[in-house]
Specification:
16 helices; 2 domains; seven-stranded mixed beta sheet; disordered C terminus; 19 strands; alpha+beta; GroEL; GROEL, domain 1; about 525 residues; about 15% strand
Length: about 525
């Protein structure tokens, strides 16, 4: 039996790591990702410059942007990127927090694995701790309502602190809160806020302070004909997703013309068809036409002659937003067009913004779609401010939806950690160790905030911990003075959903990585008959 040949069940060239080696490598990859974004956390966080293969530069401290631009290859590290993306899509902020938290949970788990605590025990302890943490968060959260505008402004400013938008955060916060309120539908307990109805248009030029909220939509388009009016007041708006031109036949077709008069008749027929389309538009009373497809040159001429302003090749997303802003219905067949399909805009105007001509559809009554026009000195500044404003829109909408907020500056995590320790002591068995490790992992947020501010994290965390033990649940770190502060009173406020989503996602990804004990990396399959 000793001479028995080994049996190969995997194809040649397959790489396989098992047991503690596999766990260790996966944890190391996740920690490397967490360390990359760690220095960007908080008001004193630093930025990253990312240069892609074409030489394009992105300067940001937005966690999900950094991770996506890095083009990460390691499978475990990709799972951490996915968690950051989920956080961004769900609540719009807290992407760096969720990545750091996931990394710290795995780091604490590695210490326990070295003590021969089984991964399933750690997983069970982490799940219990997460459920308890979510309960604690619900218990300590403070209510916020739509009427408390000062709180909403503070939420928006907290989201923008530490980013490029910080220099004008008061002005931008006002714009963000106004925009969210404008697009909100349904009052009472469950307001519906679709942040997709807030268009963020970024244009280089002027200062950040020149950014403005447009009650309507800005189109990155200019009028199709020079003879068209530049400005219209109280204009009836027509939205088309069909071309104003003669369609080509869908199948190959030939038209045989044997003499010039037939040619002339053919051209006149085309003209008559175009004129019929334009006359239908004119008779409806429309003065501004936004077309998703093309507009024929002759049709442009007829429209201009009748004082109609038209733009073409408008994006479908912009057509949808125009419909929400003006109340117009999107028309697919010009023959079926009636006056009831039209919307109204108080002002339609072609304006020069920076070096480009843009069409402003504004002064829309009860507009349920608005535009935030963001200005800045350079492309990189405008992009970073756009990202910060996007985060602010997400958190304000999230706070209104859930109606609950908590304080930031590390105070929330410290309070949850304090109450979680008490809960961990009530557990029996080795799960107690995992729950206690979970509580310690939460302290990574105030620790990182202190480190990024150049403070001694041990002293700062000890001081905050002492304050929490004395019942000051919103005691957090003031990174500008290095002292302790009441984060809620100082206006460092975040929606509770940012924290619950971060805890949920970070724990789930940590558990998933811990449960992997075998990594099999197969080569590309060789084509050929099976032997």
């Amino acid at each position: 039996m000793s001479n028995q040949q080994p049996i190969y069940i995997l194809q040649e060239g397959t790489q396989r790591t098992q047991g503690k080696t596999a766990q260790s490598r996966n944890i190391s990859a996740a920690l490397a990702v967490a360390d990359t974004v760690r220095t960007t956390l908080g008001p004193k966080g630093m930025d990253k410059m990312l240069v892609d293969s074409l030489g394009d530069i992105t300067i940001t401290n937005d966690g999900v942007t950094i991770l996506e631009e890095m083009a990460i290859e390691h499978p475990a590290a990709k799972m951490i990127v996915e968690v950051a993306r989920t956080q961004e899509n769900e609540v719009g902020d807290g992407t760096t927090t969720v990545v750091i938290l996931a990394g710290e949970l795995l780091k604490r788990a590695e210490f326990m694995l070295e003590k021969n605590i089984h991964p399933t025990v750690i997983v069970k302890g982490y799940r219990l701790a997460m459920d308890q943490s979510l309960q604690i968060l619900k218990g300590i959260a403070e209510p916020v309502s739509l009427k408390e505008e000062s709180k909403l402004l503070k939420i928006a400013m907290t989201a923008m602190t530490g980013k490029g938008a910080e220099v004008a955060k008061e002005k931008l916060a006002l714009l963000v809160v106004s925009a969210v309120k404008q697009v909100m539908e349904g009052e009472g307990q469950a307001p519906v806020i679709d942040t997709g109805n807030i268009k963020i248009e970024k244009k280089i030029g002027s200062s950040i302070e020149e950014s403005e909220l447009i009650e309507g939509i800005i189109l990155d388009k200019e009028r199709v004909h020079a003879a068209m009016p530049r400005m219209l007041k109280d204009a009836k708006v027509l939205l088309l997703n069909t071309p104003i031109e003669i369609r080509n036949p869908e199948t190959d077709a030939k038209i045989e013309i044997s003499n010039p008069s037939q040619m002339q008749a053919f051209l006149e027929m085309e003209d008559a068809m175009l004129k019929k389309m334009v006359n239908k538009i004119i008779s409806s009373g429309a003065k501004f036409v936004a077309c998703q497809k093309g507009i024929d040159d002759l049709a442009q001429h007829y429209l201009a002659k009748n004082g109609i302003l038209a733009v073409r090749r408008v994006k479908q997303s912009d057509i949808t937003k125009l419909s929400k802003a003006t109340g117009a219905k999107v028309v697919t067949k010009i023959d079926d067009l009636t006056e009831r399909d039209l919307g109204v805009s108080g002002l339609v105007e072609e304006r020069r913004v920076g070096s480009e001509q843009m069409t402003f559809v504004t002064e829309c009554k009860k507009a349920k779609a608005v535009t935030l026009l963001i200005r800045g000195g350079t492309e990189h500044i405008v992009d970073e401010i756009g990202r910060a404003v996007e985060d602010a829109v997400g958190v304000v909408a999230s706070a209104i939806r859930s109606g609950k907020v908590v304080a930031g500056a590390g105070s929330c995590e410290m309070e949850v950690a304090r109450l979680l320790r008490k809960y961990a002591n009530s557990l029996s068995g080795r799960e107690q160790l995992a729950a206690a490790a979970f509580a310690e992992a939460l302290e990574v947020i105030p620790t990182t905030l202190a480190e990024n501010a150049g403070l001694d994290p041990i002293d700062v965390v000890a001081e905050i911990k002492s304050a929490h033990d004395k019942g000051r649940k919103w005691a957090g770190i003031d990174v500008f003075t290095g002292k302790m502060m009441d984060a809620f009173q100082k206006g460092v406020i975040e929606p509770v959903q940012v924290k619950t989503q971060a805890l949920n996602s970070a724990t789930e990804v940590a558990i998933m990585i811990l449960r992997i004990d075998d990594v099999i990396a197969a080569n590309a399959k060789q084509q050929g008959p099976m032997e």
